[in-house]
């Protein structure tokens, strides 16, 4: 992106740059051969890794994600017909078209186009668009799918921004992130907003990105409990130990504690996915959330104060985060644990699962001078021992640094 010129935009809206990258030119050529005319603009939204702060965004706490350079890029031409035509440079993702007036999202089939439709529908509904424009869109994605790097949220965000621009509307990045978080729920994903916020709000070279100003009011969050009690995170950890017991809670016990019926628990508190869960590890989950939230604050403090042993301290926090995810939140899996061990063995100062977990990926902090040997050794120890992993190796193992958030590109 070197040398790209910026056009003037309000600082809180998505920046617009002139088309200068060879990748955009290539996409334009494919677009023209597909649709017979040139795209009018391009939109990109990046994937992310989360440095620390796992499964606490939806509890109301700050997290520390960063955007990566891998992204979703879409070339767009608004069309007179009220039809959206979607194509993908990867031929394994089939073409799709639908009327803009009748957006139906099939939750049972998480095909790629349904994520686009989430972003589209979110913007349409936000503005109550009666006469939305049709569009021809060609997508090019470089985020490895199903890898825990948030390719689906990047696609929803990209589609939201595409629809916004095609319909001549404007929103701040925070509003866009908010809408895209809500609209991803059309496909059944109940995320906490981290992925969409970082996709829009990331700043290149910044380590630190904080979720703020998003509307979480329909959630009963552990953060609300802390605020209400007016105590520190450390005090909350003591309270958890005093008030909750480590043995799993049955639904009956929870109903008794809350003074509600099973029906009320099911309809007012449990989500669709947890309706049939019969035991709940409240103690462990709360311990994870409050300790992880404290680790995020500590991480931020170390970055700010930069003591001589900062890197060691940050690494230690990442390692503690992984242990808490594994033991308390139980969102790791044997493969992630193995990968973390291998990364630590070959020179990572800190290593942890990142993103939702239960698969996905790990993030490691590695000194630059050890990077090449680190990558070589991890490849050998993890990927080259298994045929399935070997097939993934090429785009699954990479070095990255904080990238920038979503952008719109236009021709000069
Ligand atoms: C998913 C969600 C995020 C966040 C992470 C876990 O990526 O979309 O909002 O909750 O899991 O930290």
What do you see in this structure?
- Helices cover 43% and strands 16% of the residues.
- It is built from 14 helices and eleven strands.
- The strands form three sheets. Strands 1-11-2-3-6-4-5 form a seven-stranded mixed β-sheet, sandwiched between helices. Strands 7-8 form a two-stranded antiparallel sheet. Strands 9-10 form a two-stranded antiparallel sheet.
- Strand 9 and strand 10 form a beta hairpin.
- The radius of gyration is 22 Å and the shape is globular.
- The relative contact order is 0.16.
- The protein binds alpha-D-galactopyranose.
- Alpha-D-galactopyranose (GLA) binds next to helix 5.
Name the structural class: alpha+beta
What is the residue-mean pLDDT, rounded to a whole number?
89
Look up the CATH topology of the domain at 12-189 and 403-410.
Ribosomal Protein S5, domain 2
What general outline do the C-alpha atoms trace? globular
Uncertain residue ranges:
1-8, 208-219
Described by strand count, sense and barrel closure, the largest sheet is: 7 strands, mixed
Note the main attributes of this structure.
alpha+beta, Ribosomal Protein S5, domain 2, de novo design (two linked rop proteins), 14 helices, 11 strands, about 15% strand, binds alpha-D-galactopyranose
What is shown here, in short?
The protein is α+β, with helices and mostly antiparallel strands and 412 residues long. It has helices spanning 22-35, 112-127, 151-166, 173-183, 194-201, 222-229, 233-243, 251-258, 262-269, 282-305, 310-329, 334-345, 371-383, 387-396; strands at 16-18, 41-50, 65-79, 83-88, 96-99, 134-141, 249-250, 279-280, 350-354, 361-365, 407-410.
């Amino acid at each position: 992106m070197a040398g790209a010129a910026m056009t003037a935009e309000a600082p809180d809206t998505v920046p617009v740059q002139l088309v200068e990258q060879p990748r955009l030119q290539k996409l334009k050529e494919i677009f023209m051969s597909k649709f017979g005319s040139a795209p009018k603009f391009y939109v990109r939204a990046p994937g992310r890794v989360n440095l620390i702060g796992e499964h606490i965004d939806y509890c109301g706490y700050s997290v520390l994600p960063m955007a990566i350079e891998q992204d979703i890029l879409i070339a767009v031409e608004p069309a007179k017909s009220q039809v959206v035509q979607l194509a993908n440079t990867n031929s394994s993702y089939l073409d799709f078209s639908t009327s803009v007036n009748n957006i139906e999202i099939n939750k049972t089939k998480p095909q790629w186009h349904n994520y686009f439709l989430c972003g589209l529908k979110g913007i349409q509904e936000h503005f109550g668009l009666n006469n939305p424009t049709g569009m021809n869109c060609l997508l090019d994605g470089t985020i490895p799918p199903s890898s825990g790097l948030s390719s689906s949220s990047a696609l929803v965000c990209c589609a939201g921004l595409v629809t916004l621009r095609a319909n001549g509307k404007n929103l701040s990045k925070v509003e866009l992130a908010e809408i895209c978080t809500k609209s991803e729920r059309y496909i059944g994903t109940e995320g906490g907003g981290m992925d969409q916020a970082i996709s829009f709000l990331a700043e290149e070279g910044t380590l630190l990105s904080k979720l703020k100003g998003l509307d979480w009011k329909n959630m009963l969050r552990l953060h609300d409990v802390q605020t209400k009690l007016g105590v520190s995170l450390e005090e909350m950890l003591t309270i958890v130990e005093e008030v909750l017991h480590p043995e799993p809670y049955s639904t009956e016990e929870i109903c008794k504690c809350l003074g509600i019926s099973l029906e009320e628990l099911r309809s007012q508190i449990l989500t669709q996915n947890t309706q049939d869960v019969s035991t709940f590890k409240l103690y462990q989950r709360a311990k994870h959330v409050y300790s992880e939230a404290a680790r995020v604050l500590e991480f931020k403090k170390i970055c700010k104060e930069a003591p001589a042993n900062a890197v060691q301290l940050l690494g230690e926090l990442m390692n503690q985060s992984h242990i808490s995810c594994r033991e308390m939140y139980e969102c790791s899996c044997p493969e992630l644990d193995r990968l973390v061990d291998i990364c630590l063995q070959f020179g990572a100062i800190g290593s942890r699962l990142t993103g939702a977990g239960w698969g996905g990926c790990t993030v490691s902090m590695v000194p630059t001078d050890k990077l090449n040997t680190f990558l070589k050794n991890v490849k050998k120890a993890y990927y080259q021992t298994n045929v399935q992993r070997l097939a993934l190796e090429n785009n699954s193992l990479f070095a990255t640094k904080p990238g920038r958030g979503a952008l719109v590109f236009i021709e000069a």
